[in-house]
Structure formats: structure tokens, C-alpha cells
Amino acid sequence: MIKRIHFCVLSLLFFFAGLEADIIPIDSLQGYANSSPYVGQVVTTVGVVTATPSDWIRSLKGFFIQDAEAPWHGIYVYTGNLTISLQRGDSVEVTGEVSEYYDKTEINLASVQDLKILKHGARIPKPLLVTALEAGSEAYEGVLIQVSNVTVTNDNLGYGEWEISDSTGSVRVDDAAGYSYTPTLNDHILSVIGVLDYSYGNYKIEPRRDEDIIFSPEGTGYAFFENNTVAADDTLNLRLHIQGIVEDTLQNIEIKIPYQFYFSANLNLEGDGFQGATYSISGSGTSSDPYTIIISNATVTRDLEGIVNLLNIGIPSAAGQYTFEVYTSKTDTVKPIPDSPVVNVLTVEGSGIAIIYPIIYPLQANVDAEITITNNFGTLQKIMIIFPQDISWEGDYTLLDPGFSNATATFTDTSLYITGALLSTGNSGRIVLRNINFQTTGVKTFRIFTGGSDTLREIQESPRVFVALQDTTVPLYVFHTDTLKEFLKGRTVKIKGVVTGITTTRAYLQDSTGGLILYQPPELHEGDYVKLEGQYNDFHGSDQLYSAEIINHFGQSSFDTLLLNTPPGEYEEGLLVRVNNLTPQGFTTLIPDTTLTFRDPHGYPFYIFIETGSELAYREIPPDSIDIIGNVSEFDGTHQINPRRLDDIILKGNGTGKISFYPPYLYKDQAENLYVIIKSTYTPVKSMELSFKEATFDTLVLLGSGWGNISAPDSLAIDSQNTYMKFVGGISLYEDTIVFINFHPS
After folding, report:
1. For the purposes of burial, counting CB atoms within 10 Å of the CB of 481, is it exposed (0-12), middle (13-18) or buried (19 or more)?
2. Does the pTM of the predicted model rise above 0.85?
3. Which of 365, 633, 677, 711 is the most exposed place for a label (fewest CB within 10 A)?
């Protein structure tokens, strides 16, 4: 009993123990008014993350937090180009200056040190159910909300925004997260969930993912544990609450028990949503076949919750976050809810959260690294840091903050061992490693071990860093290497290379190792050799840099075009390539925003994509062998070549170009000047033969710059019936004309 009481007290103090600054609640920062009373002041607040920086691929550069499920209790934290790694459900302490950015209340985070992660896996606030009319109000700015039973009443308001309406009014929805749904007029949507943002004079809902736009009740719901932080090796009861979030009733619910828990199949169902419900248990309790609680005949809604009381369940001995996967449905097959509840298992050994700053380091340069360790359970007395293998360090360090005031440390060239620390729950200590030097590029891990008086154990998530090149730029091949690019996703990075292509919304950059797409780039030109900074993320599989800014412009540079013999893949993405001898499927029109299939002589398919606004849009391709130059992009696993302009389509003759006449018809036995207009859409006409019958003319005139110095055909033959002429060199015709003076058809 004493053990249980002690642990509950720790849980209650978890969020606030050791916080030095005065904590101002979020609703006080919002001020219950259009403008915050704290504008211009540096404040500290706490809340649970409802949307992270990595959720957004455009527009937003920050995260949202809430401290209650109520109006006025959400706020946006602007991070700019800081590299911030967060998860939904992180409990955080934020310090920054309050501003009204074009009437949106936000906290401006000046450095990563002003953000403390107090806990992973906290309960994410349930979205507030509001009407479309209410969603357009100041009270819900920054709050996670939900509007139900709506219709799409405008599918394109511009800039990725669209409109939904219910019986009370309308509200905008934005696409900063890049979800896959394409708004369609008159679509009926069960529910739209998202944080409420304000920009350009409009409130707008920002869904965070595909699952926030709900068309069916399957896989919906809200689940949480009453107390999700427990002690390792304990035996106790866990109460899991399950609620609906749409109007439909959830009748079928399944819960998978993590195999590390000891589950004796002892449980009961409580709550109005489980009146009359029955359950069964399947599985063998292994990692591949975990115990699964199958609940039928439930009546769970927004107003009727069900509670699963797991009795005498054994907690694992290993610290960590354990997810209880929850699946729901109305009548069909169950599907997983997007935010399944977690249980945090803590021990003194291995407890604590560690972050490192900075995240990205230059190669072979002496730099400082600061590791902050925040304790989240018990009191830490010992800490060991094991360095990455290829680091050079001479043992220069500093211990900061009261928790390390009496600590001592010993070091080797591969580790630092701290004893005598007193880091109690919620307190932090900083270790500054001076003049460390990384010898190779890539992702590196600083392994952190913590403990009390005896055993040490590695913390749940040891901090990692990325070692870039000496000028802090990331080689472009990294963004096409799975383990490396996953670490950099959502982070601010620097890159360097030559611009090889520019389209209406993108630019393409390549270096000697690979290529990358710049989405909505700054003003650039082909051949620019530049160093850029922006946020890396992917969109439907396409690796891109967002919000790029030019750091250095090194002038103009040449660049290579890669000749492909097989269809492009991940490692060609972003590169400028050329493919020879492709054949379209018949006479083809280059329709924008449509993927067209061409084949090479071996039958391999090559996918060609033309952006809206390109000068290639709606041009026609004859059904002959052609060469194509373009930059490689990806969409949902399909790699496609994006020609940049007309001369990226290289025709091979055999009818290249088009002929038109003015006037379009002539009368027999009547002489008139005839204009023969030659147009070549892609590559110029270099030679041409022309013949006609039963007509005469006095002379001919060549009009247009494509004729160069040529004033007459290279050969001309005329008899009583036929006229034949040939141009074999010195011409380059794109849109040029032959005028036959007094052309007389007989």
C-alpha cells in the first residue's frame, strides 16, 4: 500500500516538479479576447502537443499545445527554422515571447533550450465538438476541434484551402499537412478534425493526417488510461476508457494487450457504452499472437463511454512506452484508431529523457555539444554517456545546473561517467562536451545510461545527431537512404548544389551524390550554384525541401545529365536525366497533371509528367521514337520524368514539324500569294523536302530567322506537272515561312 501511495504522488507532481519559472496557463495567455494581454512579454507555459512541426509540409512552422479540453486553452508555438523533434502526446514546457502575428496569438521559441519535454505519451486532448460557425471564432484558435456532418461547399478557395458547411454556417479547411484527400464539391464528410489556425484574415481547420478527415465510423474513437504512468514489475488494475467521436455507435471493439504484460484474462466491462456488451479473448500472448480482447454488442458513442477494467495485470520489468492497440467499427471489419493509448513504464534505472543540441554537426571540426537530461521518475544519481565510435574528444566537459552541483565525473576517449548527481523528478542537468570532433558523416547515437545507487540501464530513447559535411551541408544522396532520411524528416537542413531545372512550383538541385526537389523555391535560375537552408520532408513519397532560403550564391556552374537505360528509381529522384528512343502510345497530347506512359525498345515503361503552366502543356507528340530530358520526381511510389521546356522533347525527324497554309484554300486558275508556315514544337527542322503538282509560281521568298543566310532551296526541280525542292543544311526552323509569289493552281 505504501508503494502505491508514493507512486500516485509522483504522478501528480510529474508535470510541475522542478519547474523554476512561473507557469502561466494557456487560457490566461489567450486572455479571453482577440489579443493576448502578454504581447511582448517572455512567458513560460506547459501543455500537451496536439500537432507537431513534422505534421506540416507547408505554411506552418511550429506546433500546437493545449492544457485543457476547453475553448481558449490552445496556442501555437512558432519554431521557425529551429530543429524540433516532438510527438503528439508529449507534455512540454515552453518559454518564449508572446506575439500577435497578423492577429494570431503565438509563442515564439527562440532556441531549442527553451523547450523541455516533461513526458512522452501523455493523454492527447479529445477534439472539441463545435459547429462550423463556432469554428470561425477566436475562442477556438489553437485548439484541437471537430466539426461533424458537413458538406464540401467549395472545393477550391485557393492556396490549398476549401470550405465545409453545416446547418450553422461555413469554415475553411487548409492543407498544410498534405493529406491525401482531394476536396470534391458536395462530398458529405462525417467529421473533420484539426487544430484551428488563423492566417490571412481567416480561421481555418488544419487536419494533421488522413485520419482527421472521416468518412466512416470504422477506426474512429478516443481511448485513454486513467493513469498511464506505472512502475515496472508492479501488479495493478488498469482502467481503459473508450469513447466515440462521431455520431455513429461503435458496436465492435478490439484491444491488443502488449505481449510484455502479464495478462491473466481477468477483466470486467463498465460504463453505459458497455451495457449489454459481451467479450471474448483470443491469442496466445506472444509477440506474433498477442492477447486480444474482442468486445461485441457495444453502444459506445460520444456520450456513452465504455470502460475496460484490466484486473491484476502484471507490468513489464523493462522501462518504455507500450501501446495498447484499439480497433473499432460500427458493423464492418474493425480498423485501428489513429491514437491508440500508451502506458509508460518507468524505473529509476533507465529513467529520464535526453536531448542534444545542436542536432546537425560539421565533419572533422571541433564543436561543442550540450546534452540535457530531464528526470521523470525517482532520483538519478549516476549517468553514463557512451560516445559514437568515430568521435575524437580530449575530455573537456562542464556540468551545469543544481542537480550536478556535487557530481563528479571520470572519462575515457569513449565515455563519460557521472556520479554523485541528484536529479529528482522533473529536474534537468546539462552536460557540455567541448571540442568533440566527428570523423565520418551519418547518424550517430550518444547512448545514455541512468540509475540510482546501483544498476545503470539505457534510457528509452538515446539522443542521435547527424554529421554533415564540413560546411554543414547534407549530401543529397542522404535524402534517398531510408535510415538517414527518416532521421532528418521534419528538420531544418542545409544543402548545396546546382539548379538543373525549374518548373511552375519546383526547382531541382543536384550535387555529385544525388538530387533533391525544392518546393516553391526562392528565385533561382538553371545553372545557379547555391547553398540553401530549409525544412526537409516528403510528400506522397517525393523527397522535398520546403521554405528554402538562399544562404550563399556561388555563381553559375555546369551540370551533368544522367543517361538512363532503365526506368528511374529512388536514387535518381531529383536528378536531371535523359532517356533515348522512347515511343508514346500512339499520337499523344501532353495533358498537364497526368502521367503518360512511354516505352523504350525493350518495352520498359517510362512515366512522363507535365506540370500545369508548363510550355509543354497540351503539345502534341507524333507516334515516333523520341528522346526526353527531364528531372525525376516521385508520387506514391511512381518515379516520373518531368521535362522542363520544349527542347527537352527531342524528335528524330520522320515528320517532325507541322505545315499550315494561308490562305487555307485557293481558287483554280487564279493566282495569289501562298504562305506555307512551318512550325516545329520541340526541336528545329534541320532539313526539308517539299513537292506539289499542277501549280506554278513566279518566285519564292523565305521569311523568318530560322532560314539563316539561306535565300533559296539547295535544289529545285520543275517540270510541266511537278515541283520539287530540297533544303539540306543551314536552316533551323521553329516557326518560319515560305511565300510563293503568284501561286497559280491549274
Report:
1. middle
2. no
3. 711
